[in-house]
Every structure is written in C-alpha cells, then in structure tokens.
Write a structure and sequence with these properties.
The structure is a single chain. With 354 residues, the chain is an alpha/beta fold. 45% of the residues lie in helices and 15% in strands. It has 2 domains: 2-157 and 337-351, Rossmann fold, CATH 3.40.50.2000; 161-334, Rossmann fold (3-Layer(aba) Sandwich). A 7-stranded parallel β-sheet has the order 3-2-1-4-5-6-7, sandwiched between helices. A 6-stranded parallel β-sheet has the order 10-9-8-11-12-13, sandwiched between helices. The radius of gyration is 21 Å and the shape is elongated. The mean pLDDT is 93.
Length: 354
C-alpha cells in the first residue's frame, strides 16, 4: 500500500507524521511525504529514506489583510497543484497531520476520491482540521473532545519515551537535590529564560535543584539571567536527546505544545506547564489542561508567571518525592503508547489493505 502523508510547518505536525511514516516503512508499505521546501519538514527529512514532493503553499493566518484577501486564489492554485501530485503518485490513502500544507492536500484528496484520514494533535483543533473533518473518511484526535465524532488515539511519540525506566526508579530520594529541567523549545521561551532563574534565586540554596536549562535561540538571555540571579545551572542552546533529558529530570518546566505534552506523559514526568500565550486558538492552554486536570502537571499561564509564583509552585515539588511520584504516575496513565500503531492501522483500513 502507498500512503501519502501531508504534514509541515512545525515539529508538532512533522514529528508525529514522521513516526507514522517510519512505522509504515518498517511494515513494508510505501510512503510519500507532501510538504514544502521552506518548512521544518525539509530539514527533518533530509538524509532520511522517505521520498518527498514539495508544494508551493504558505499559511494565511496572521499574515495581514492583503494575504487574507488573496487566500481564495492561493488555495485554488494549491489544490490544483496537489491534485496533480496525487494523480502522479497514486496513493491509496492520504494522512493529513495538520498545518497549512494539509489543507489543500486534503481537499485535493477528497476531490480525487482518495480516502482521507486526518489527525488533530492539539486539544483545540486548528482551522484546517475543523474543515477537513467534514470531508475525511476517518477523523482521529490526540485529546478527547477536540473534534466531534473523532476517535481518540493520542499523539505518536518515539518508543524510547515509553521504554524509559519507571518514575520510581528515576526520581531521586528526598536526601538528594532534585533535578530540574527547563525547556523553552528551539526558539527559546524568553519568559522562562528570564523568570526561572529569578524564581530559583528566591529559594534557599540548600533547597535549590540541580538545573539544566535549554535556552534555544535566546540562550544569551538565560545566561545573563542566571548570572544576575547568582544561580548555578547547566545552560544549553539545544538538547539533542530530549528522552535522556526527561529520564534525568525530577521536575520539568516547559511550554505545552502537543508533542511535548505527549512526551511528558509517555516518559512519566511531573511538570509545570507555561502555555505559549500567542499560540493559535490558545491551543497550548487546552493541551496543558489535559495533564493538569489529571493532577500530572501544574498549569501556570504566562500572564501570572512571576518569580514569586513560580517559586511557590516549585517548592512543594522540590521537597516532596512522594508528590512528584504521584504526578509522574498520573502522567503515564494519560499516555497513549500505541498511538502510532493505531494511526497506521486506521490508514491501512481506510486504504483497503487491513
């Protein structure tokens, strides 16, 4: 069977799609990726044995009034291009993983009567999937209630996260200093880079955790903030092996993108989640609530994130291993370790190969 996967723009769309693509290839199926050369997907697919077809598509939300007025014409051109690519590739099924690239490909798939499977990664669905859910053969979602009448399958994450040792084997005893991991993403979360050091400065040095802080592109901001606060930390621009970093963390402070939330759950990490306030449709707050409502995370809106409020949230976790273990166990209960295989099975069934 041949499966076309449309995903692009951000890691939250690309990495789940990549996990599904690799599983399909392992099972002996053919895969073709539909994306853009300017997107995140081009960098991730480089050097991998996944054929790709590049589309000339760009998003329109948040790009200004002129771009919005041009949107219908751009969409028609994009759908026509996708129609031609699908005609050439002849996939048995199209899997749309969200992002603007999935819109025209999904419409072209529907017009060509190619079975369409869509997957919504976020708890608050994007505009593309809200539209495509009305046309799709099967709609899937990572979080309950995102799309009406869609099957909940979770978000695909690499198997290495679920394979990590159990939280009770990783959490340090109360006699040792806990390990704090701060992750701001590849762009760097300036709010975290500035306020985490300030919060740690308010905590007695004897109670402070061992800190690893990933600062992203605003690394210099984090370095300056830690120096000013007089707090020791290992500061990195990027963390290549995030699974290993989670395994070595007793508490995680981070944003709440869909993939991050799925990885925290799979790894079983207690966390303090600070949603990115400018995320489209405020989907990161909805993502964070999935873990917070299960008592697996603390949700802290950035609008209320101060050195004092963050220190108040950290202190009970730093001093209580049993509490951290409770949250870690709750997190793992919210994971979907079979998400990737379930999506694969749905695609094969929709394409007639199951």
């Amino acid at each position: 069977m041949k499966v076309a996967i449309a995903a692009g723009g951000t890691g939250g769309h690309v990495f789940p799609g990549l996990a599904v693509a690799e599983r399909l290839l392992e099972m002996g199926h053919d895969v073709v990726w539909l994306g853009t050369e300017q997107g995140f997907e081009a960098r991730i697919l480089k050097g991998r044995s996944i054929p790709a077809r590049w589309l000339t598509i760009a998003g329109v939300r948040g790009k200004g009034a002129l771009t919005l007025l041009q949107a219908p014409l751009r969409l028609l051109r994009a759908v026509a291009q996708c129609w031609q690519l699908l005609r050439e590739e002849q996939p048995d099924v199209l899997l749309g993983m969200g992002g603007f690239v999935a819109g025209p490909t999904g419409l072209a798939s529907w017009l060509r009567r190619v079975p369409l499977v869509i997957h919504e990664q976020n708890a608050a669905p994007g505009m593309t999937n809200r539209v495509l859910s009305r046309l799709a053969t099967v709609s899937l979602q990572a979080f309950p209630g995102a799309l009406a009448q869609a099957e909940v399958v979770g978000n695909p994450v690499r198997s290495v996260f679920a394979a990590l040792p159990a939280p009770e084997q990783r959490q340090v005893p109360d006699s040792e200093r806990p390990r704090l991991l701060v992750v701001g993403g590849s762009q760097g979360a300036r709010a975290l880079n500035e306020r985490v050091p300030a919060a740690l400065a308010l905590i007695d040095p004897a109670q402070r955790p061992v800190v690893t802080h990933q600062g992203g592109r605003t690394l210099a901001v984090a370095e300056a903030a830690y120096a000013q606060a007089g707090v020791e930390a290992t500061i990195r621009e990027f963390i290549d092996d995030i699974a290993a970093a989670y395994a070595a963390a007793d508490i995680v402070v981070c944003r709440s993108g869909a993939l991050t939330v799925a990885e925290l759950a799979a790894a079983g990490c207690p966390s303090i989640l600070v949603p990115f306030p400018a995320a489209v449709d405020d989907h990161q707050t909805a993502n964070a609530a999935y873990l917070a409502d299960a008592d697996a995370a603390v949700l802290m809106p950035e609008s209320g994130l101060t050195a004092e409020s963050l220190a108040d949230a950290l202190l009970p976790l730093l001093s209580d291993r049993a509490r951290r273990l409770e949250m870690a166990t709750n997190a793992r209960r919210m994971a979907w370790p079979d998400a990737c295989q379930r999506i694969v099975d749905v695609c094969l069934d929709a394409g007639g190969a199951a």
